[in-house]
Structures are given as C-alpha cells and as structure tokens.
Amino acid sequence: MEASVMEVGRSLLACGSCGPEEYCGFSSGQPRCEKCTICPAGFFLVAQCSVHADRICQDRDECLEIADLCGDTQKCLNTPGGFRCQGMTERDANSGMCGHGYFYNSDMDECQACNECDGEPVASPCTFTTDTVCSGPAAGDSALSMSWAGDASLLGTKGHILAHAFPSVQLHIQGRSDAGLVSAESGHLVLRQHGLVWLDENLSVSHGCRSFIQVCLRMNNTDGSEGRDLSGIRVEQREGRSLQSVTVSGVAEVGPGHIMSLFLRSASHHCNQSSEGLQLYDPVGSTLSLFWLSHDTGAVAMTAQAMVSAHYHTNYRPVFRTTSTSDPYVVGLTHDGRGIRFAESGTMRFVFQQALYSMGQACVTEGFQILSYLNHNGTNSELFRAFKSGVHYRDTSISLSGAAKVDPGDTVGFEIISPAQCNVRFFGDETGISILSLVWIPAAISSSLSAAVAHTGLPSGAVRNKPLFFYQTSPHVSQMGLQGKGSADQKRDFVFRESGTASVALDLKLIHSCNLVKVTLLRRSDSDGSGGGREAEGARPTPVAQQVAGQMPEGSQWASVSLRASFQVHNGTAVFFTLDCVRGRVNQISHQTGSGVSVLWVAA
After folding, report:
1. Mean pLDDT of 523-535
2. Less crowded by CB within 10 Å, the N or C end of the chain?
3. Rounded distance between C-alpha atoms, residue 287 and residue 201, angstroms
4. How far apart are CA 196 and CA 96, in angstroms?
5. Confidence of residue 179 (pLDDT cuts 50, 70, 90)
6. What is the mean pLDDT of the chain?
7. Which GO terms describe its molecular function (predicted)?
8. 3-state DSSP: the chain helix, strand, coil percent, rounded to 5?
9. CB-count burial class (<10 Å; 0-12, 13-18, 19+) for 130
10. pLDDT digits (tens, 9 = 90+) for 452-493
11. How is residue 195 annotated by DSSP?
12. Are 502 and 481 in contact (CB under 8 A)?
C-alpha cells in the first residue's frame, strides 16, 4: 500500500498541476496530464475521474434492461453503445423499432444510442435513422484564432535554484491544457493543431554568471529528432545582481505533436555560487502566452536572420536572409535584403532581436535605440522605437516588437542607433539571437492600433499601481479603440468591440530610483461596451500579464521595460496598464520617443 501511495505521489509531482477535467496518466510511458474520458452514448458511469485515475464507463445491456426490446428477447444482441435485433429490416427501423433514445445505424446494421451533445446546442435532433447533430464544434475546428496562457518557472525551490555551473536549464512550462490547442507535458508545450503560433515570454531574472545568460525559445519536430531555436535573448551580467526584465518572442508554423520549450543557457560554466544563484521573479498574471492562427485565415509566418558584419557600427541597418516562410509571394525580402515587402493588404506583427557587444562608457550613459520604418509609396515613416540601456565590455540584446497595417508594395526596415563614442559589434548564429520574426494576417479579419504615452497625467513621484494614459496615433478602426474620461489625448482603456484574439506590445522608457518597477496589463469586461471600460459593481480587474524590472543600471540616463501578451477578447472587453514603483520614485516617463503600445486584433 505504501509503495502505491508513493507511486501516486511521484506521478502527481511529475505531472504538476492538472486541469479540472484531467488526470495524471502514463499512457505514453511518461507521466503527463491527460483528458478524462467522456462516457459515450449507450454507456453509464462506474467511477468518476480523479487526480490519478481516468473515468470508468460501462456499456449498458439494453437487452436485459428494456423488456420486449426486439419483440422477442431471444432476438436481441447487446453491442457496445447499442444493440442488434436479429432479422431487423430498414422498414422496421423506419417504424421506430429501436425505441426512444436510439437510432438505426445502417452501416453497422444495429441500433445505437443517440448523442446527448453534453450541454451544446442541438442542430438536428435524433430520428429513427439519424443521430443527433450537435452545433458546437470541437475547439479549433472552425476557430480562426485562439490564445493560451501559462507560466514558465525554474523547477525546484520556488523562484530560484542554486546556479553552481549550468550549461543549460529548462524552464518548466505549466498551464491548463486545452485539448483543442495545446497541452503542457513534462515542462514542454505540445501543440494539438495545425496552424501558425506566436509566443511571448516575459521574464524577470537575476544571475551571477560571467558574461551573459541566454533565454532561448526552441521548437522540436514531432518525432523529437530535430529541433531549432526560434528566438534567443542575451541577458548581461550586472554588478549588484539587479533584477532584469526580458521579453522573448517568436513565430512558427506548427502541426500536432510539435513541442515548444524554454531554456536558460549560460555562456560559460562560471556562475556565482552564492545562495541567491539564478533567480526568477514570480509575477502576477501569466508569463507565457501563445497566439494561434488557423491556416484558414490565410495568414503567413516568416523568419529572417540578420547577416552580421564583423565591423563596428554607429548606425546599423541590418541585411536579412530568409530562414523560413509559409508563403514567399505574400511576404518576402526586398532585393537588397534590408526590408520586408508585402504583396497584399493586411496587418503584421513583428519582433526583431539583435545580440551585441559594446565598449565605451558612452554606451552605458546614452544607451541604444532600435527603430522600425514603414516605406509607403516611396515615403519613409517611423513605426516604432524602443530604448535599451547600454553595456561596457559586456554582451546584451536589444529587441523591438509592434503591429501595424500594411498595403501592397509597402516595405518595413530596421535601424539600431548607438552613441558616437560607443564601439558596438553585432552577433548572430543559429540560436535566434539576430532574428526577425513576422506574422501577416489578411485585412478582412485583422486590424491594428498604435498609441503613444500621453504628454500629461503620467504617474511620477512615489507611484503605487497608477494607470498609464495614452493617445491613439494610428487611424481609427471599428474593432477596438481608446476610451475613457478626459481629453482625447489622455485615455486609459483599450476597449474591444468585436470578439477575437488580441496581441499587445508595450515599451516604456523612464527614469526612476525604484528597487522594482512593475508594469501590469489588467483586463475587465463590460457587457455592452458602452461604459468605456467601467468596472461592473464589485468586480476587480484581473491581471493578464506583468513585467518586473530592477534598479536602473549604474551610470545610465534612462531605463526601459517591455511587456508583450496575447489574450481572448469579446465585445466590451477593456484592458489597461498600471505602473508600480517599489521603494523609490518614478522621475520621468519619456513621451517623445521609446514609449508606446501597439495592438493586433484577429477575428475569432
């Protein structure tokens, strides 16, 4: 008895936290959360599903339970989910011989129990010769877009491990499994649908490793034999072991069985062996989010690697080579490789991540800027800009993400601006540290919104959970907009007017003396959408995602924090951002450059 209890304990520990309709099973040879069996029509429940055992169902014996079923009990034969009457003809079936709750299945030549639809609407009721047709399709059968959210953590002691010397540590992914989309198994994310996926992971980490650690997003093929890094972000070593905020994003074309994993890799085996070790901050909300697009949307995914030069640059405009594309006609590179061209109207979301090494105190003082440009009819305009504090004799990464509308013939390019007295070298390899990831969705089912931080009303001083205000810089669209009290250039709530999936990217450039800076995305629902995102009586907004950064780098004029997440929306759903400063002051938020938010919306 004791051994079996221990076995159950081990299996639950290995499975982690399973969902409400799941149990910890071993059908694949390894412990994993599996969906509880649903008793089919014609079966009855023997034992309920528990944390370590599946639901048990048993076939009804209609021949014993129902008197004179076939007119003569000798002619009745019990079958799984139904029964067979010997010598039964179609004329008998059409006359209702199968009885109430059963229909005649001509393919099997027997009576089968009618489907009960399990609470779903009935599209067509059961007849003498046809089964019930349920109107609720399985998840993913007709959906154009869906989202999933979970958490990635270090397995073991909560929040940290002792980083003696680690070449690679897998982050343990957990989250409620969605049988139609994904399941979290053994710390990995297993896809269940064909389509395109966009992933965002918001991480707050401190480490004592020499040089840097690298956050990697990796995809393995179905058989597990091959894999590739979709994305990689380098996190520099900092004096004082300050907490650093990191956001890693990537896109991929996937099929059932594809596996997504998150890793932390160190550049060397020399890590600070203090009791603090490698630490991850445990935020509110989910750290990992996934945006799934059906192939029925006509969406296109593309990745391209920056061709890295060995020379130092002040203003660097990367040249790309395509590494993957699901449709090279719609999205591809320009002839010189410096831009991404679009052949059709739509909405695109991108992330460009570039690893670099810099030398010079000016790198630290002034930092780096990364920009994206849209060329429309031969005219360049700036799309987005983000700031990254610099490093001196260190490795780091800079990244930029955003969503925007594109027309046929438009191109998008990028530039990284460094201080004049700063020597910078850019790196690239096969681990996704110098990669552009992009997804394009046709205009008929998508839209985008961009907003800049408001010029007035920004939180400053001792800021505790104060809202951020914005004004819209992109054209108005019918699916979403900024709402709230006050002037048009000072709005808080992003309100959605149609159901779908949303993906947001926020960048903040600020000066502060806080021990911790927390940026939180919160969500609330308004039934009719007319209240401008006002909360229902007694309802509290729920956190969707949070990013946490530590103290400003010593000697730097500015700091930055980024937050990216995807989530489902409905008519009336409202989201907003708050800023929280723990032990210190927020002195200034840049409203001119480096701060803003973009939102991608795709129909459900």
Report:
1. 50
2. N
3. 6
4. 48
5. low
6. 85
7. calcium ion binding; heparin binding
8. 5, 50, 45
9. middle
10. 999 877 888 888 889 999 999 999 999 999 986 666 667 899
11. E
12. no
User: What's the CATH fold of domain 231-237+245-603?
Assistant: Jelly Rolls (2.60.120)
Angstrom distance (rounded) from CA 35 to CA 555: 53
- Cα angle 514, 209, 357; round to 5: 80
> What's phi and psi for 380, nearest 5 deg?
-85, 135
Residue 566: its pLDDT value, please? 96
- In the chain, list all ranges with CATH 2.60.120.40: 231-237+245-603
193 residue type, one letter:
Q
Please state the three-class secondary structure of 283-342 as a single string: CCCCCEEEEEECHHHCCEEEEEEECCCCCCCCEECCCEEEEEECCCCCEEECCCCCEEEE
Is residue 559 classed as helix, strand or coil in its secondary structure? Answer: strand
Letter for the amino acid at 420?
A
Q: Which two tokens stand for residue 318?
A: 């990367």
* Residue 397 in this model has a pLDDT that exceeds 70: yes
Distance (Å, whole) CA 276 – CA 242: 12
* Span 53-104, pLDDT tens digits: 889 999 999 888 888 888 765 688 899 999 988 888 888 888 888 888 898 8
Q: Write the pLDDT tens digit of every residue in 305-339.
A: 998 766 666 788 999 999 999 999 999 999 999 99
Q: Can you tell me the distance from the alpha carbon of 279 to that of 492, in angstroms, rounded to the nearest whole number? A: 33
Exposure class string for 573-582: b at 16+ Cβ within 10 A, else e? bbbbbbbbbe
Question: Hey, which bits of 114-258 come out as E strands?
Answer: 122-124, 133-134, 145-153, 160-161, 168-174, 182-185, 188-191, 195-206, 212-220, 227-236, 244-254
**Residue 76 amino acid letter:** C
Non-local CB neighbours of 89 within 8 Å, separated by 6+ positions = none
Residue 276: pLDDT band with limits 50, 70, 90: low
CB 145 within 8 A of CB 500: yes
CB-based contact 169:154 (threshold 8 Å): yes
DSSP-derived 3-state class of residue 191? strand
Close Cβ partners of 483 (under 8 Å, ≥ 6 residues apart): 491, 493, 495, 532, 533, 574
Q: Look at residue 7 and give its three-state secondary structure.
A: helix
| CB contact at 8 A, 128 and 103 | yes
Query: pLDDT: is 117 or 448 the higher one?
Result: 448
408-437 confidence digits (pLDDT tens): 999 999 999 999 889 888 888 888 899 999
Radius of gyration of the chain (CA): 28
CA distance 434 to 397: 9
- How many residues make up the chain in this entry? 604
Angle at 371 between CA 388 and CA 328, to 5 degrees: 125
Q: Coil, helix or strand for 591?
A: coil
- Does residue 267 or residue 148 have the better pLDDT? 148
Read off the pLDDT of residues 542-559 as tens digits, 9 standing for 90 and up: 999 999 998 998 889 999
